[in-house]
Amino acid sequence: MIISARQILAADALMFVLAGTFLGISLGIDIVLHSTSSVVVAVEDGAKFIGIACWMTFHVSAMARLIGERLAR
Prior knowledge:
This protein is an all-alpha fold. Helix content is 90%, strand content 0%. The protein has two helices and no strands. It is elongated.
């Protein structure tokens, strides 16, 4: 578990934290406000989109780093 956490944070800690933060914001808005107002839905979906984009960026940068390390060998 600790080894995995070190590898995750070594990959791109900022993107990992941002993804969790924005996905958490989206979830929090959905649970707390649970509104059908177009503004609330737009803010929730915007936070979700940013969270997903950060999550994807985290995985792509981790993959690129690993491929670079393998090719350097």
